[in-house]
Amino acid sequence: MRRTLRLLAASGLLLAGIAGAATAEAPIRTSEPKPLPPLAFETMDGKPASLEDFRGKVVVLNLWATWCAPCREEMPSLDRLQARFEDQPVVVLALSVDRAGPERVEAFLNEIGVQRLHVYRDPKAAATRAVGVPGLPATILVDKAGNETGRVLGIARWDGPEAVRAVRRLLDGAAG
């Protein structure tokens, strides 16, 4: 019995360590621009949309899902980033890869109090495969010409100084 309790306690510590590592913030790094494949998705009311629709704007493309706990943690900072750049050509595009309908996505966003993001759907998760992201959340920084200039796998603090600097550099036309 004691051995079982010790094993359970050790397992709990291991799991707590893994959970803590999973929620650590990823650094926001930029790189030289590289072309992205065409990305098609849909509006919340089912109309076709694509990344090309945002050419001429800086895009913070966040791939996420309602069932993703780290996405829930990260989403409010993305909302605050959009608020910070509300009057500038910056779009924080939250692309849900949920298979569930738009009602589930809307309910999730309402539950966590997110209001400013530009929310789209990709129920077949084609964008995640096209850009080669292994998990969620994943965020890609896109310059005004539609090129990838940075990628963050995992949670980042999108309203923090590092992210704000990266977005400002892209607004100014600087890359890398």
UniProtKB/TrEMBL annotation:
<dbReference type="InterPro" id="IPR017937">
    <property type="entry name" value="Thioredoxin_CS"/>
</dbReference>
<feature type="domain" description="Thioredoxin">
    <location>
        <begin position="30"/>
        <end position="176"/>
    </location>
</feature>
<dbReference type="Pfam" id="PF08534">
    <property type="entry name" value="Redoxin"/>
</dbReference>
<dbReference type="InterPro" id="IPR050553">
    <property type="entry name" value="Thioredoxin_ResA/DsbE_sf"/>
</dbReference>
<dbReference type="InterPro" id="IPR036249">
    <property type="entry name" value="Thioredoxin-like_sf"/>
</dbReference>
<keyword id="KW-0676">Redox-active center</keyword>
<dbReference type="InterPro" id="IPR013766">
    <property type="entry name" value="Thioredoxin_domain"/>
</dbReference>
<keyword id="KW-1015">Disulfide bond</keyword>
<keyword id="KW-0201">Cytochrome c-type biogenesis</keyword>
<keyword id="KW-0732">Signal</keyword>
<dbReference type="InterPro" id="IPR013740">
    <property type="entry name" value="Redoxin"/>
</dbReference>
<protein>
    <submittedName>
        <fullName>TlpA disulfide reductase family protein</fullName>
    </submittedName>
</protein>
<feature type="signal peptide">
    <location>
        <begin position="1"/>
        <end position="21"/>
    </location>
</feature>
